[in-house]
Amino acid sequence: MIETVARVESNIEVAPGFRLLTLSFDRAINPEVGQFAMMKPSGCLEPLLRRALAVYRVERPDKLSFLYQVLGRGTQALSLAVAGSMVDTLVPLGNGWPTQSLTSSGRAIVVAGGIGSASVLMLCERLKRQGVDTRVFFGAANSDVALGCGLEDFKELALPLTVTTDDGSLGERGFVTAPLERHLQAGDGAGATIYTCGPWAMMSRVAELAARFDVRCYASLEAPMGCGFGVCVGCVVAVKTDGGSDYGSYKRVCTDGSIFPAEQVRWEVNAMGH
Amino acid sequence: MGNIVNHDPRLAVEIAGIRFNNPVIGASGTFGYGLEFAELIDLNRLGGFSTKGLSARPLAGNPPPRIVETHGGMLNAIGLQNVGARAFIEEKLPLLRRFDTRVIANVFGYSDDEYLEAITILNDGEGIDAYELNISCPNVKEGGIVIGNSPTAAARLTEKAKRASTRPLIVKLSPNVTDIAELGRAVAGAGADCLSLINTVVGMSIDVETKRPRLSYGTGGLSGPAIKPIAVRMVYEVAAAVAVPLIGIGGIASATDAMEFILAGATAVQVGTANYYDPTVTIKIVEGLSAYCDTLAVERIASLVRAASPGN
């Protein structure tokens, strides 16, 4: 975990409302796949809190890029950061995707929804490099959003890829969990590990399918974060406990996660609050 | 860990017989158990820090969502999730003893007896410099603010806590009262060695789409720069009402902010929410206070406590 001021190399709009921010650092960062950073433009007084962005790509050990959707005040402030300007950054954070147990004989299913894709591109690259039999399910609201969420980068990986859009403007019409369910129903998920990142409702459904088909599943969660390094205890998710004491029924998304075994999460308690 | 730090002697302050190398203290609830910051700053350079509120038994806290950002601040309703006093002594304190910084144990309970139980457990811990009695947390339904809203109840608990405690007692005041000076007088009269103020200001934010409060608890405590003028005013008022030293808290994010509190009547300050968006802010404030002393030829920062008062 390093607290530093990074320099904006570029901050390009990749589709309306979606941008790719590339930051250079004064030292090597070497994040694990699935880790994130807390950041806001240096000198920015409002909003107060930094925003959590997943590391999209490691361009060089000291140069990272972040794909993000401009949604609220924090990402709007970031969207205005021009090349050469500075960004206060705490990085790398979170536990990263557990891929160690997967070998070339293993199988993986990656399910990305919306900008949740930003957390799994490097995971897909890693799985491919490890020779893991990997299939990607990529869902977005429409074709523009799919492009904003990095669809072209996923296509370049040349992994088996199923695309869905809510409005049918690209790929299959409907939610990404529909083709996932068919895939699992056909028995094609046997022995696989599912990795998912996306909207809460989508991940909740993926977790349900994983449980039904008895497939191991990890989910990268999102929650409003105060600090990103465990002290504010604001970004908690409700988890299942062994009973007994209530203590331990909430875990911090930032330091206990952001990636959790899906069966640990109490999906009926939405950590995002909507 | 054992870094030799050249402290600026002009910044040293004393509270209830405890010497702080400087008046900058990490605020309870925003500084974890201190150790979380060891990777980011040199804890030896801090005046001290106050722990996350410790209860006799571990607490789970409130369901999410627990925080929401507002203009110039944030609302939180964490609900005092903490490891418990016993685990703090066994797991955190041994690691903290390696640092030369003052450790204040913030104490919480749902009843007078639970506060005393937590203090009794913590009395066994080696390396705690003082207790801070949290009678002002707005995010739990019993204890905390229920006691802190009533000068009588606050004084009663202060008196019992002082008797149970083997260490200096700081009492943390709530701003959610009609007359904070009256509350301060009651608590100081009951034996508090120091008052810290303010805790968060009760607020609410509503999601206009779901038509529900954004926090699961409903209300939350407002913190950050937005509350600073309220806090400065309250420190100024309480300083005029009591003789014990004060620790100023509320939206401090720079040395200038810290100086406002000192001039209003605080001997030291606690830095809270700013730690979230700049984990190194406490060290920057220490450096800024030295720079302030240089610029204005201040020999001892303690000489400026309450300098803004008309009598000074």
Side by side, the strands of the main sheet of chain B go 3-4-7-8-9-10-15-16
> Treating each run of at least 4 consecutive H or I residues as one helix, how many helices of chain B?
9
User: If you average the pLDDT of chain B, what whole number results?
Assistant: 95
Give the % helix of chain B. Answer: 25-40%
Q: What is the chain-wise order of helices and strands of chain B? A: EEEEEEHEHEHHEHEEEEEHEHEHH
Overall geometric form of chain B: globular
Strand content of chain A: 25-35%
What is the number of strand segments of chain B?
16
Rounded radius of gyration of chain B (Å): 18 Å
- Going by helix content, strand content and strand pairing, the class of chain B is alpha/beta
Q: How far apart are the first and last residues' alpha carbons of chain A, in Å?
A: 30 Å
The major beta sheet of chain B can be summarized as: 8 strands, parallel, barrel
- Give the uncertain stretches of chain B in residue-range form: none
